[in-house]
Structure to design on (209 residues):
Protein backbone atom coordinates (compact mmCIF):
# COMPACT_ATOMS: atom_id res chain seq x y z
CA UNK A 1 0.00 0.00 0.00
CA UNK A 2 1.32 3.45 -0.87
CA UNK A 3 1.21 6.59 1.27
CA UNK A 4 -1.80 8.00 -0.54
CA UNK A 5 -3.90 4.93 0.20
CA UNK A 6 -2.60 4.77 3.76
CA UNK A 7 -3.62 8.37 4.32
CA UNK A 8 -7.09 7.59 3.00
CA UNK A 9 -7.34 4.58 5.34
CA UNK A 10 -6.56 6.81 8.32
CA UNK A 11 -9.07 9.43 7.14
CA UNK A 12 -11.89 6.88 6.80
CA UNK A 13 -11.14 5.25 10.14
CA UNK A 14 -11.09 8.67 11.83
CA UNK A 15 -14.71 9.09 10.80
CA UNK A 16 -15.70 5.75 12.34
CA UNK A 17 -13.59 5.32 15.46
CA UNK A 18 -12.32 7.30 18.41
CA UNK A 19 -8.63 8.10 18.77
CA UNK A 20 -8.85 7.72 22.54
CA UNK A 21 -7.82 4.59 24.46
CA UNK A 22 -10.48 2.38 26.01
CA UNK A 23 -8.39 1.95 29.16
CA UNK A 24 -9.38 4.19 32.08
CA UNK A 25 -6.66 6.08 33.95
CA UNK A 26 -5.95 9.42 35.57
CA UNK A 27 -2.16 9.58 35.57
CA UNK A 28 0.74 8.33 33.41
CA UNK A 29 1.53 5.79 36.12
CA UNK A 30 -1.99 4.39 36.09
CA UNK A 31 -1.86 4.13 32.31
CA UNK A 32 1.42 2.24 32.54
CA UNK A 33 -0.08 -0.28 34.97
CA UNK A 34 -3.25 -0.64 32.88
CA UNK A 35 -1.27 -1.30 29.71
CA UNK A 36 0.78 -3.99 31.44
CA UNK A 37 -2.46 -5.61 32.62
CA UNK A 38 -4.00 -5.43 29.14
CA UNK A 39 -1.70 -8.04 27.63
CA UNK A 40 -3.94 -10.90 26.40
CA UNK A 41 -6.85 -9.37 28.32
CA UNK A 42 -9.81 -7.21 27.34
CA UNK A 43 -9.87 -3.52 28.20
CA UNK A 44 -13.23 -4.03 29.88
CA UNK A 45 -11.76 -6.54 32.29
CA UNK A 46 -8.73 -4.35 32.95
CA UNK A 47 -10.96 -1.36 33.73
CA UNK A 48 -12.93 -3.40 36.25
CA UNK A 49 -9.73 -4.52 37.97
CA UNK A 50 -8.06 -1.11 37.98
CA UNK A 51 -11.13 0.64 39.34
CA UNK A 52 -10.58 -1.16 42.64
CA UNK A 53 -6.79 -1.33 42.42
CA UNK A 54 -6.24 2.36 41.68
CA UNK A 55 -8.60 3.46 44.44
CA UNK A 56 -6.15 1.98 46.93
CA UNK A 57 -2.82 1.71 45.13
CA UNK A 58 -2.98 4.15 42.24
CA UNK A 59 0.35 5.82 43.04
CA UNK A 60 3.86 4.32 42.88
CA UNK A 61 4.63 4.65 46.58
CA UNK A 62 1.32 3.01 47.49
CA UNK A 63 1.77 0.20 44.97
CA UNK A 64 5.11 -0.67 46.53
CA UNK A 65 3.45 -1.38 49.88
CA UNK A 66 2.04 -4.52 48.24
CA UNK A 67 3.86 -7.81 48.08
CA UNK A 68 3.66 -9.72 44.81
CA UNK A 69 1.23 -12.23 46.29
CA UNK A 70 -1.07 -9.43 47.46
CA UNK A 71 -1.05 -7.69 44.06
CA UNK A 72 -1.74 -10.99 42.33
CA UNK A 73 -5.05 -11.28 44.18
CA UNK A 74 -6.20 -7.92 42.77
CA UNK A 75 -5.21 -8.67 39.18
CA UNK A 76 -5.90 -12.42 39.05
CA UNK A 77 -8.81 -12.12 36.60
CA UNK A 78 -6.59 -10.35 34.02
CA UNK A 79 -4.64 -13.55 33.42
CA UNK A 80 -0.86 -14.02 33.51
CA UNK A 81 -1.18 -12.47 36.93
CA UNK A 82 2.15 -13.64 38.33
CA UNK A 83 4.17 -12.18 35.47
CA UNK A 84 2.10 -9.00 35.39
CA UNK A 85 2.48 -8.48 39.14
CA UNK A 86 6.23 -8.92 38.80
CA UNK A 87 6.41 -6.42 35.94
CA UNK A 88 4.23 -3.84 37.69
CA UNK A 89 6.25 -3.96 40.90
CA UNK A 90 9.64 -3.97 39.17
CA UNK A 91 8.68 -1.04 36.93
CA UNK A 92 7.26 0.82 39.92
CA UNK A 93 10.45 0.29 41.88
CA UNK A 94 12.46 1.77 39.01
CA UNK A 95 10.10 4.74 38.80
CA UNK A 96 10.56 5.43 42.49
CA UNK A 97 14.30 4.84 42.69
CA UNK A 98 15.50 6.13 39.33
CA UNK A 99 12.96 8.81 38.43
CA UNK A 100 11.82 10.25 41.73
CA UNK A 101 8.37 8.69 41.59
CA UNK A 102 7.53 10.14 38.17
CA UNK A 103 6.97 8.11 35.04
CA UNK A 104 9.62 9.23 32.51
CA UNK A 105 8.23 11.22 29.60
CA UNK A 106 10.47 9.90 26.82
CA UNK A 107 10.79 6.56 25.03
CA UNK A 108 14.42 5.95 25.91
CA UNK A 109 13.82 6.15 29.66
CA UNK A 110 10.47 4.38 29.51
CA UNK A 111 12.13 1.37 27.92
CA UNK A 112 14.68 1.18 30.75
CA UNK A 113 11.91 0.39 33.24
CA UNK A 114 12.07 -3.24 34.30
CA UNK A 115 9.13 -5.15 32.90
CA UNK A 116 8.23 -2.49 30.32
CA UNK A 117 8.52 -3.51 26.68
CA UNK A 118 8.54 -1.43 23.52
CA UNK A 119 4.77 -1.64 22.99
CA UNK A 120 3.96 -0.48 26.52
CA UNK A 121 6.51 2.33 26.30
CA UNK A 122 5.04 3.50 22.98
CA UNK A 123 1.50 3.55 24.39
CA UNK A 124 2.47 5.53 27.49
CA UNK A 125 4.62 7.94 25.48
CA UNK A 126 1.94 8.62 22.86
CA UNK A 127 -1.13 8.69 25.11
CA UNK A 128 0.13 10.13 28.39
CA UNK A 129 2.75 12.50 26.96
CA UNK A 130 1.29 13.18 23.49
CA UNK A 131 4.42 11.87 21.79
CA UNK A 132 4.57 10.54 18.25
CA UNK A 133 4.70 6.74 18.36
CA UNK A 134 2.88 3.69 17.04
CA UNK A 135 2.43 0.82 19.45
CA UNK A 136 2.00 -2.53 17.71
CA UNK A 137 -0.14 -4.95 19.68
CA UNK A 138 -1.80 -8.11 18.36
CA UNK A 139 -4.69 -6.19 16.74
CA UNK A 140 -2.43 -3.64 15.03
CA UNK A 141 -0.07 -6.37 13.85
CA UNK A 142 -2.86 -8.51 12.40
CA UNK A 143 -4.86 -5.71 10.81
CA UNK A 144 -1.83 -3.95 9.33
CA UNK A 145 -0.81 -7.14 7.55
CA UNK A 146 -4.31 -8.01 6.38
CA UNK A 147 -5.13 -4.65 4.83
CA UNK A 148 -1.67 -4.22 3.29
CA UNK A 149 -0.05 -1.60 5.50
CA UNK A 150 2.77 -3.92 6.58
CA UNK A 151 4.52 -7.14 5.55
CA UNK A 152 3.61 -9.02 8.74
CA UNK A 153 7.14 -10.36 9.25
CA UNK A 154 7.45 -9.23 12.87
CA UNK A 155 6.26 -6.58 15.30
CA UNK A 156 9.30 -4.31 15.04
CA UNK A 157 9.28 -4.30 11.25
CA UNK A 158 5.53 -3.61 11.26
CA UNK A 159 6.11 -0.61 13.51
CA UNK A 160 8.78 0.76 11.16
CA UNK A 161 6.63 0.16 8.08
CA UNK A 162 3.68 1.97 9.63
CA UNK A 163 5.89 4.89 10.61
CA UNK A 164 7.04 5.19 7.00
CA UNK A 165 3.55 5.02 5.49
CA UNK A 166 1.54 7.10 7.96
CA UNK A 167 2.05 10.80 8.63
CA UNK A 168 3.92 11.34 11.89
CA UNK A 169 1.14 13.52 13.33
CA UNK A 170 -1.27 10.59 12.89
CA UNK A 171 0.84 7.82 14.41
CA UNK A 172 -0.85 7.75 17.79
CA UNK A 173 -4.33 8.12 16.32
CA UNK A 174 -3.70 5.37 13.77
CA UNK A 175 -2.70 3.02 16.58
CA UNK A 176 -6.14 3.40 18.16
CA UNK A 177 -8.00 3.27 14.85
CA UNK A 178 -6.36 -0.02 13.90
CA UNK A 179 -7.11 -1.52 17.31
CA UNK A 180 -10.78 -0.60 17.06
CA UNK A 181 -10.93 -1.85 13.46
CA UNK A 182 -9.51 -5.17 14.62
CA UNK A 183 -12.06 -5.47 17.38
CA UNK A 184 -15.10 -4.32 15.41
CA UNK A 185 -14.56 -5.76 11.92
CA UNK A 186 -11.16 -7.37 11.30
CA UNK A 187 -11.30 -10.04 14.00
CA UNK A 188 -8.80 -12.88 14.06
CA UNK A 189 -11.22 -15.75 13.41
CA UNK A 190 -14.10 -14.23 11.45
CA UNK A 191 -13.46 -10.83 9.86
CA UNK A 192 -16.56 -8.95 8.72
CA UNK A 193 -15.12 -7.87 5.39
CA UNK A 194 -18.40 -6.88 3.76
CA UNK A 195 -19.21 -4.27 6.38
CA UNK A 196 -15.66 -3.05 6.91
CA UNK A 197 -15.39 0.72 6.37
CA UNK A 198 -12.14 0.35 4.41
CA UNK A 199 -13.03 -2.72 2.37
CA UNK A 200 -12.41 -0.92 -0.93
CA UNK A 201 -8.83 -0.20 0.14
CA UNK A 202 -8.04 -3.55 1.76
CA UNK A 203 -5.38 -5.21 -0.39
CA UNK A 204 -6.19 -8.71 0.81
CA UNK A 205 -9.85 -8.29 -0.18
CA UNK A 206 -8.87 -6.76 -3.52
CA UNK A 207 -6.55 -9.69 -4.30
CA UNK A 208 -9.23 -12.18 -3.28
CA UNK A 209 -11.74 -10.58 -5.62
Amino acid sequence: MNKTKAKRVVEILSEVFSDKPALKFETPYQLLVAVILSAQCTDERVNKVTEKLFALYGEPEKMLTLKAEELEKYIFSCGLYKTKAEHILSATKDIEEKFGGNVPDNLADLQTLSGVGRKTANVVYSVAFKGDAIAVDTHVFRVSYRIGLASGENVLKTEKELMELIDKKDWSKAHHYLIYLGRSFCSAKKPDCENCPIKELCEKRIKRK
Summary: The mean pLDDT is 95.
